Amino acid sequence: MTAVAVDGLRKRYGDHEAVRGVDFTVRDGEIFALLGPNGAGKTTTLEILEGFRDRDGGSVEVLGRDPGRKADGRWLRGQIGLVLQDIAVEPYLSVRETIARNAGYYPEPRGVDEVIDLVGLEEKRGAKVKDLSGGQKRRLDLALGVVGNPQLLFLDEPTTGFDPNARRGAWEVVRNLRDAGTTIVLTTHYMDEAQALADSVAVIAGGRIVAAGTPDTLGGRDSALARIRFALPQGAAIADVPLPVTDAEDGLVTAEAEEPTAALHRLTEWALRRGTPLERLTVEQPTLEDVYLSLTGKYAEKEASSPSSERGRRPSPGRGRRPGRSRS
Length: 328
Ligand SMILES: Nc1ncnc2c1ncn2[C@@H]1O[C@H](COP(=O)(O)OP(=O)(O)OP(=O)(O)O)[C@@H](O)[C@H]1O
Fold this sequence. Notes:
Its main location: membrane. It is a peripheral membrane protein. The chain has a six-stranded mixed sheet with strand order 5-6-7-3-8-9, sandwiched between helices. It starts with a strand and ends in a 23-residue tail after the last helix. It has helices spanning 42-50, 70-77, 95-103, 112-118, 134-146, 164-179, 191-197, 260-274, 288-305, and strands spanning 2-13, 16-27, 31-35, 57-62, 80-83, 152-156, 183-187, 200-205, 208-213, 226-231, 246-247, 252-257, 282-284. By secondary structure, it is α/β, with parallel strands linked by helices.
């Protein structure tokens, strides 16, 4: 079943078309990541799905309902969870009191202590919200997003400001939620996060989807050539290397290979015969970040060379502008 279906979505702010015909679907029970540079239209798209913003065109279905219709929007608010960047919480309430208060807004909430354990705030159960660290506060945000036992959870940059251990902890929480049946739609600027978590991803740039797929296949990543890099051995010239190589950064040379095993065999045999080691040898497939940068870079180049491109766009106003989005 489809949890979210977006078809030809459009949204304009004055004369700026922020979302220009976006299509994607999110399958029931998956983690879907919407990726894109600042100002690409991610927040606008999510706000429309969450029922906080009207659209100008296209169709949107969330759990089979239209968040743009008042009655559907009300029903959806009981079924979806939101973890946003700027949830307002009462600083003098304790962690437990804050979660218990939010639980009261939902028809079938999760147990408060279960949620505290789920997000790893056991030690801080009785602590006042104002005394939490930045990372602990984000865990509380996550707790508030899941306490309603939502079918669908929206996570807006869920690990911004986390230390590396806390990020891995949060990923574990998100995976556990998915495994327990929650569908998750997230935005992130961290490609390692999308790689680690997402079952499928879509890249948005300039209000359009420029690529969609799984993290491993996005933009033809799985069929891309492997890159072999190494420092040219002392006394060797580029022409001596038994593979076509080009100069790379940092004094390294690069060979691109369809069959990296065979290419490495030729290369290492050559080096052993010469008796010179291949220093700083690495073999890499393009990472999700490489593919993302290439997709969004190509988009930016196309925009810059298009005579109709819109220059000097207003910078993204950042967070804190979703109308009426705080629940606490
Ligand atoms: N309320 C608004 N009024 C006018 N313009 C807006 C408004 N909200 C967003 N925009 C513009 O629409 C475009 C898309 O913004 P949006 O916030 O959806 O991007 P984003 O992909 O979420 O960016 P970021 O990664 O920086 O959060 C931007 O050019 C932004 O300046």
